[in-house]
Amino acid sequence: MFAARFDPVRLEMLGEPVPVVHDLQMALNAGPANYTVSHEGTLVYVPNTSGRRSLVWVDRSGAETAVPAPPRARIIT
């Protein structure tokens, strides 16, 4: 996944895109990536990993903080 500065008034990209997420999970046979962005700008995504997953908060510097929720098995749709 890449991000770039964007001017919403002129509908123009400002500058070059930069990578922000590597190994983003994609849905099988359909192609869409498993992510969403809130109105406030919070990005939530599913990494492309196997096995059980745990939720974490990741701050802007990349530091992870565990969320108190039990790990779950990977579900592919």
Describe how the helices and strands are arranged.
Blueprint: E1 2-7, E2 12-19, E3 35-37, E4 43-45, E5 52-53, E6 56-58, E7 64-66, E8 72-73
Antiparallel strand pairs: 1-2, 3-4, 5-8, 6-7
Explain what this protein looks like in three dimensions.
The chain contains no helices and eight strands. It has one domain. A hairpin with a 4-residue loop joins strand 1 (2-7) and strand 2 (12-19). The strands form four sheets. The chain has a two-stranded antiparallel ribbon. The chain has strands spanning 2-7, 12-19, 35-37, 43-45, 52-53, 56-58, 64-66, 72-73. Helices cover 0% and strands 39% of the residues. By secondary structure, the protein is mostly beta strands.
Strand order of the largest sheet: 1-2
Arithmetic mean of pLDDT: 81
Largest sheet: 2 strands, antiparallel
Tell me the structural class. mainly beta
Catalogue the unreliable spans: none
Separate helix tally = 0
Spell out the helices and strands N to C: EEEEEEEE
- What form results from the Cα inertia axes? globular
